[in-house]
Here is the input.
Amino acid sequence: MSADTAFDPAARHSSPVREPILEIDNYGGYFSTSADQAPVLKGITYSLARGAITAIVGETGSGKSLTALSMLQIQPASFVRTSGRILFDGQDLAELDERTLRGIRGARISMVFQDARAALNPIFTVGRQIADVCRLHQGLSRNDAKDAAIAALRLVHIPDPERRVRQYPHEFSGGMAQRVMIAMALVCKPELLILDEPTTGLDVTIQAEIIALITELCRESDLTTCLITHDLGVVAETCDYAVVMRRGEVLETGTCEQVLTAPRHEYTQQLLAASRLVDDA
Amino acid sequence: MNANPYPILRVNGLRKHFEVGHPRKRLNAIDDVQFDLFPGETLAVVGESGSGKSTLARCIVRLIEPSAGEIELDGRSITQLGPAGLARVYRRIQLVFQDPNSSLNPRMTVRQAIEEPLQLQLKMGRAQRAARSRELVAMVGLADEHLDRHPHQLSGGQRQRVGIARALAAQPQVLILDEPTSSLDVSVRGQILELLQDLQQTLGLAYLFITHDLQVVRRVSHRVAVMYLGGIVEQGRTEDVFADPIHPYTRALLSAAPTARWGVTRERFRLAGEIPSPVDLPDACRLAGRCPLAEKPCHRAKPALIPFGPHRAVACPPALAQRQSLVV
Amino acid sequence: MTPTTRSAAGVAEPSGSGGDTATPGPVAKTRRRPPPAGALGFRIGVGLLAGYLVVAIISYFWTPFDPLGVGGDVLVKPGTPYLFGTDRLGEDVFSRTMVATRYDLAITVASVGLALVLGTILGTIGGYYGKFWDGAIMRAIETFNAFPTLLFAMLIVSAVGPGILNIIVVLAFVGLPSYLRLARAEVMSRKTWQFAEAARMVGCRSWRVAFRHLLPNSIGPLLAFTAVNAAWVALITASLGYLGIGLQPGVPEWGSMIANGQDGIITGQWWVSFFPGMAILGMTGSLYLLGDGLGDRFDPRRRR
Here is the structure.
């Protein structure tokens, strides 16, 4: 990750470059279920700068989601790691035992998935699901957890949170459910938030709202964010750094400005050209 | 754009409602939609969820029966036709579906899928079919070898090409494309759009292009109709609407769409709240609850599409009034 | 709302479904995977059933002793020359078990086949056309459901009398509702798939969409169900025989053979009931294994 380019202070919050919070170093592997055991990830290397929003960009099959799942060690069981490490706070996440990992998931690293309404458990109220996260990691009492849940909903700008905390996932629209997921991810104040295609499938106007929310939350609380997407428009609006992936390899990394205005790799150029189908005035 | 003044497809007063839930409530999926489509042009229909655009596509070809309204294809009404008449209609107007995964029968080869309309609709013999199917796959940029493959052996872009070839088999004059590129990767979209534009040039097709992607609209369409909760709120030439959107919803939509350009910050025109449920809507402007321009009359009756200039229509009296006052 | 075919469960597949490669290249989702562990069960099931078929065919040409030959030594223990021993009437249990294979196998296959074909057709009609036809068919089926199956079979067979054809037809009718409902559900769920709409657009009339497009795609679950259902039918056939209903008395049939020998279990002549019982167990078990294997093969989760 090239950390030597200064930001444009007018467009992005400027901060002195800091230690990365998470580093992926030459991570590679394959699926044991595939016939030829071809590697699906090859030498993935990038890092997430503290307090910044990093976008992982790629199309289907690029391995961007798989790498993210590996950060939390929730990748499919058939994935076999052949090389590399994922360093978080000096520890290789791929080597940790399940107990330690459970302590990290939700509390220090959180993840938000694409289809919010599918990711939420339909038989529990939204408040109960958020409260459960608090109680698991922070050992809060039931009432304290409930208050924390209401505060979390308020944080993501869900109106009337006292009432909505008692509602079930199906009573929320797609955009609202996504906000709930973000609230659940942030309730224990993690250091790193990973979002896997959080706006795909949402309406355009809702997408814009969610993106604005994510940006606001990250800037306010110095949260490191890893945003996985295929949409370069989303990248342009929010991110500080970008990592471009294709077919299990990292092709290019750099600041967002760099990647969008002066891409080095041909694929990135193609992707940019395709994303801007029209030359707007 | 063709100078032909007669529309090849004309839709008037189209309505479709469903009864949902217990107790029964009315869902107005399409609420008094009216537009013309001229030969050789592309009219884009844009909207978000609940806008009714997919229902619109199916109502026009009567895959779903409309509740009311008139549809005319090349001057002749098709709303009341029986199965035999409809079979003839499907030789003039075809549908390209959205999801390349589920729009092809997984058990049929490409050849079988393309030859089916040749056999059923054009009554071609075996040799003729074989020759014509080779022509069709070539037309959409595939090779002969793809003919004997099954859908799961093709990529998403290739499957979509097969879908287009299948729609073209009957030699239609109008193609309705229901989000043809939404399920495809970004790098593939451009190719499919290019293909569609080439085909339009070569075959003189008229397209009704349904999408939610404003970039696509900008690129392929001559005119655009913006839909919200079942009704058209703004309609006009694409370049005009994009350069100067008038209806508040159009403004919100255009300002929300992200562009892959660094350093471009756009003034966001915001609407309050979210898209309401389309069930049991009151008799008022559909945007009234969320609109910053809303006035008393907006809550009392639904505004009609008001013409504004030669090719433009907007269903928002306050916005138009603002515009007039600027002009005056 | 645009559905997305991207990252299903976040897992990337090497040759993604959204790209557009000029040649598909080494397609990862090939069907040539090494067979999973469950395939062993499938093979055992098929093997055993083939064995039964062979025995049934052989029984037409040769059995060690005349299966209806009364008068041999009574209640001889299994060994030589009577491999499975003899029963109270002096008939060779082994020969009778062989011959009974014909009947039990034939009844099972025929009644399941009939139920499958009829049920699928009716279910497809009901599922696709909906409203009136669906209503009529479903109401008719529901009267069948009012009765417990075995009881129903017993009642009808008692009414129409013994005979292999009668049993086949009765069991077919009793089993039909399940196939009907399954076919109907499969067709209904696929009706909204876009290729069904596309089929209508290219000129298919309704029946063609239902039978040439929707039904072939629904075969998988149907086949899996058929095998397991066949196991159940085999059991019912034997039960009817055990209760003395169905085939003419004297005709060898596993269920009736068990009934004949059941007193012997207490008094020590276990072999008369045991071997027919094992035969039933073997056939039922192999059908289950077959059904399980088919179910795994057609499991939608394995398809991508």
In short: The radius of gyration of chain B is 21 Å. Chain B touches chain C through 46 residues (CB under 8 Å). The mean pLDDT of chain B is 88. Residues 186-203 of chain B form the longest helix (18 residues).
